[in-house]
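Protein data:
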Amino acid sequence: MNDMYDFFVLLLDTGGRHGEICTLEWSRINLEERTISLWRPKVKNESILFMTDRVYDILCNRFKNKLNQFVFNNRTGEAKGYTPTTLRKAFKRAGLSDCSAHTLRHTHASRLIQNGLSIYEVKEMLGHADIRTTMRYAHIEQRSISIKAREVINRLNKENAKPELRLINN
């Protein structure tokens, strides 16, 4: 098992916070339904997340070798607390010198928004109490927004065009 790889994939595919994934317990995993009941202590709420295929594969493999209640555990059986130094070293080995565990959360949010989820949907996925927090995660590329806006306006214009207006524009 590659703990660090598995940990990073869970962070990236769930948008979970470092501490939420470090302390994730098997009792919160439902492999049959492919869900994770993620308790978010920072905002005192729970999110039900549906697993991506690779999260499901990772959790199935880890479940076969589980030692105790935690998905990620240390040698003494407690929740594994990946230190910022350990994570920085792992990112550096991967050639990502300016990253942190939180970068993966930002990436998760940005990927969702750039692929069609609304800021409100992403707010729910991340478990934010305030939409303004989610807005800080929304690294929306201006070019991509402009292209989408053009496509929407073009489609609306075609759907709502009157025949005589089409003749004038031809």
